[in-house]
């Protein structure tokens, strides 16, 4: 008799693999347990069991597994089904989904690089012999590969040992950035058992007879124990007794006390709990009732509420109802940066029942949320996260909110799975029989289409909370202003006056500029040469603060040249402008105001964003300049003016969504103005004040924008009328890529009876030294999406079988955004 387990490997492989197991293992293994397995000659991976069976594989000899890593499944059957759906819909390997879904702390493999945490001091007496050996090796060497550890411990089953060291917060995996360290273990103290009796006490006092400080500490301990009735942490004891850790240590050495560690949850929101009573406005209440009515019939509902209509409060009410039914709630946000504000708003109602899950959290934190969700723990009744939170092991999911559903960051671009979190959430909800609420002031065309064609429910809130008026939007014609010399740098006189007026009243200002850096280009005034990235087909961006030219695609950077590399002229000038330059001009124009900047350059690091938001909220910043990060649902109550520095570069993006996005971006940024009492003001600087999209923004005409765009989408064959699959091909050899892309295009063009476009050279045709070509396939509603994908898969397989093209990298992006 032979016994086998079928596993998913965390690799870009479409198939499951068969490994051989013993009879006892065969009976023990359940779907969703992790198993470490050998792969290839030397590799080891953490695989996921999907089934056990007794059929030998026909194409290869099944290898033996190394070991079973879990006692109980840590992935649920629904997850596996959901992941299979993702793989099939988004045309990627199930292994890609598995790899993308799991925190890397749960996916150790032979290539994993491990290093010691520099921030923690370790009590080596808590380590097992094997753990200590690894610890010691890491004292001598800054990092080790799993393979090295196999050699050190002289055995192959080492993942559990590494896992323990990870859990003890002693080591970390290399790919994670080691930022602000939050202790996971709290050290507690208790009396040594030998003194836990009446005779013990007198013995103890005898021991401490001559040591006053120690005696005092022990007496304090007794007092605290009597009054506090909770485990006593070392910290608490030292504080209460006003003693020192040295005294504690002596007492531990004397075996009067013993210390022990308790895991404390890293994310503690209990402090915020103030249990407010939420009273909805009539408009909110009506919206809430309508959503519930829609949910009686439909699985998905769109809440289309203008900016500052108080959508969050409606969400809170609904969440409360699902929690009362003991359901788990998933709250998806487009941007991790937004979690801070949301968490502090939600934790006022739900306290410690909130867990946060996103990529800036380190492995330990993510693993912990994973486990809490799996156990349906109280600590994770509400999960707030960016798109990857969809992959958590929910067992009892009742409700999913996708806030700011129109945001393109919900679509993952690289690596596979290239899924759209909104659409994937709807499918997930279906498996759980859960409801989905999509929220936005500027819904995506696709979603609004679904909501008006009765697929989704539609609920609208048309007024701001507190009946505050929508901001007044004024347009400034840049052509005219430059002509009449009314510009100072990039500021029109109108904008300067408005900023002066607002800041004089102590009100705050937000300025929106879609580009970071100082200026996009450095240009030679003699020959017109613009420095380019060596590896990408893009010009370098000038960053004044660092005096550097940087590539925003690959990170390549050089010091700002003193002369032109083409003609040696020293007359160099900057062209265009970014946030950094706006901030500098501001400092000159408004020397008395404090300015801040929010873009990718200033928000690096785990708390970078929080810091800026907090100082703006606390009014330490008067004028905040930022990129589209500003457009995403932030709530500041003292902002009375929003300025859009230049509306045009958004409008003329070569992309069928450019007008839709420009409308969303401008409406959202405008929505930050005048949110609480006074009507706010918005000034949009543009060369095209008569442009339809800008006019639609000005009068808050979402319906007009929708109608116009929908018409274009139909004429030009785009979503929602056509589904789009984009195929990207990359190779270092320009000619080979050109031939390969043509080959694939022709095969698709001949065999698919639908529009196939390309192969196109994109605007930026080389990144990191790889040339790029794209092919677009447009699938009309009348064709079967599944059928088309099946044929495409076959063609991609035959492409891969053509020897000269095998090295060309091909990626497929379904529902390309
Ligand atoms: P939206 O997400 O629709 O843009 P928010 O939910 O951020 O709007 O609400 C805008 C502001 O109004 C927030 O500061 C919020 O606290 C406040 N607000 C909304 N509804 C209520 C309510 N029912 N009671 C008290 N304050 C509310
Ligand atoms: Zn030159
Ligand atoms: Zn580059």
UniProtKB/TrEMBL annotation:
Q: What is its EC number?
A: 5.6.2.4
Q: Enumerate the residues binding Zn(2+) 2.
A: 533, 536, 551, 554
- Record keywords: ATP-binding, DNA replication, DNA-binding, Helicase, Hydrolase, Isomerase, Metal-binding, Nucleotide-binding, Primosome, Zinc
Q: Which CDD domains match?
A: DEXHc_priA, SF2_C_priA
| Catalytic activity of the protein | Couples ATP hydrolysis with the unwinding of duplex DNA by translocating in the 3'-5' direction; ATP + H2O = ADP + phosphate + H(+)
Q: Which residues form the Helicase ATP-binding domain?
A: 292-461
Give cofactor(s), names only.
Zn(2+)
Ligand binding (Zn(2+) 1)? 524, 527, 564, 567
What Gene Ontology molecular function terms does this protein carry? Answer: 3'-5' DNA helicase activity; ATP binding; ATP hydrolysis activity; DNA binding; zinc ion binding
The UniProt transmembrane annotation reads: none
The cross-references to InterPro entries, in alphabetical order and at most eight, read: DEAD/DEAH_box_helicase_dom (IPR011545), Helicase_ATP-bd (IPR014001), Helicase_C-like (IPR001650), P-loop_NTPase (IPR027417), PriA (IPR005259), PriA_3primeBD (IPR041222), PriA_3primeBD_sf (IPR042115), PriA_C (IPR041236)
Q: Name one GO biological process term.
A: DNA replication initiation
Q: Where is the Helicase C-terminal domain?
A: 537-726
> Which cellular component terms (GO) are annotated to the entry?
primosome complex
Which Pfam families does its entry note? DEAD, Helicase_C, PriA_3primeBD, PriA_C, Zn_ribbon_PriA
Copy out the cofactor comment: Binds 2 zinc ions per subunit.
NCBIfam families assigned = priA
Instruction: Say which family it is in.
Output: Belongs to the helicase family. PriA subfamily.
Q: What does this protein do?
A: Initiates the restart of stalled replication forks, which reloads the replicative helicase on sites other than the origin of replication. Recognizes and binds to abandoned replication forks and remodels them to uncover a helicase loading site. Promotes assembly of the primosome at these replication forks.
Quaternary structure? Component of the replication restart primosome.
Please state what the protein is called: Replication restart protein PriA
Organism of origin is Flavobacterium crassostreae
What's the source species' lineage? Bacteria, Pseudomonadati, Bacteroidota, Flavobacteriia, Flavobacteriales
